[in-house]
Design goal:
The chain has helices at residues 2-25, 68-74, and strands at 28-40, 46-58, 82-83, 85-95, 101-115, 118-131, 140-143, 146-154, 162-172, 176-186, 190-199, 204-212, 218-219. The protein is mainly beta and 220 residues long.
Length: 220
């Protein structure tokens, strides 16, 4: 009986050392449970006991639960709508080297947002020049200008307050003149810019205001 007890003690001690080494190395984690078995004494009397069993489980096999915060970060942000430029404008200014002629213009402009920070399109304007040909008889129409050019928007006016508006083209009036537009377009649809023309003909400049009806249409 003493030999059996000693042998059992040595086995348990060896298993305990093995489990402690595995836990210390960080690779395995021990799980214990017991199972009943019978011990027979020299007097043939049976007694129930519990024999500890030990199994080693690899920690790497445990399921890993992803962090909820990381899952939220990985979600793709929803794409917001983009607005195109589809508007009208009107302007008033001066024309001629002595600035004695009035210049009135009106036109349309279209630009599609390639990305939210940049859009491209075209513009077209026409109007008339007025000068005081005869003293005391008022102003009369002296010419009709035609403007055509490329229009760009630079900046995100879809989500922010405003963006830069830039156009370049040509104007046919008293000659072929270069035409430049500089201004801003606002998220609420308002457009304001200055229109400058010059070259073969006299220099002219107008201050224009318009509205972008394209803000009513959403494009992706």
């Amino acid at each position: 009986m003493k030999k059996i007890t000693l042998l059992s003690t040595l086995c348990l001690f060896w298993l305990g050392c093995l489990g402690a080494f595995a836990q210390k190395s960080g690779v395995y984690e021990a799980i214990y449970y017991s199972k009943p078995y019978h011990i027979y004494t020299p007097h043939y009397q049976a007694a129930n006991a519990h024999k500890p069993n030990r199994f080693l489980i690899n920690k790497a096999e445990k399921p890993v639960v992803a962090d909820k915060k990381e899952n939220k970060k990985q979600k793709a942000p929803s794409e917001k709508s983009k607005y195109m430029v589809l508007g009208i404008n009107a302007g008033a200014g001066f024309h001629g080297s002595s600035y004695d002629e009035l210049k009135m213009t009106f036109g349309i402009d279209i630009a599609y947002p390639i990305v939210k920070q940049f859009g491209m399109g075209v513009y077209f304007s026409t109007g008339f020049f007025m000068d005081e040909r005869y003293y005391g008889e008022g102003y009369s129409v002296s010419g009709v200008p035609f403007q055509l050019g490329l229009l760009t928007t630079i900046g995100n006016y879809h989500d922010r307050t405003a963006a830069f508006l830039f156009g370049i083209g040509w104007e046919l009036s008293y000659g072929n003149n270069a035409n430049i537009r500089l201004g801003s377009i606002f998220r609420n649809g308002l457009k304001v810019y200055a229109d400058l023309s010059g070259g073969e003909g006299p220099f002219s400049m107008t201050f224009n205001i318009g509205y972008n009806f394209g803000a009513l249409f959403k494009v992706r």
